[in-house]
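Appendix B. Raw example, untouched.
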Amino acid sequence: MSGITDLETLLREMRPDLRAGEYVYCSVPADAPGWLSLKPLGFFREDEGLTLIVEKTEADKAGLSYGPVMRCITLTVQSALEAVGLTAAVAVALTRHGISANVVAAYHHDHIFVPADDAERALAALAEAAPVLT
């Protein structure tokens, strides 16, 4: 699979899509049994343990502690992993509106986790910024 690397094209075609549901980041020990049953949207192994991105309802059922409740915005453009500048451009657009962002680059798309209360504003900020950033 070859994704798009041209920043102007990525920004013009990013088409942000707000995913249903609320997500949280949790940390569990690296050897914790059963964490896959939480159906994580994503996970990352760190020295301190596994960071899981799971639906809030799953974390609540499992009794896991977590930080802020987030929403996920997927940039539906098929970005290449080696593309330069997309994360920075998105961060700048959201920073201008005082919105924090946690970006996860996956094989096909980039996913931006923003505080749940800021999700609609984040969508608007990205839509407003796309033509300006190109």
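End of appendix B.
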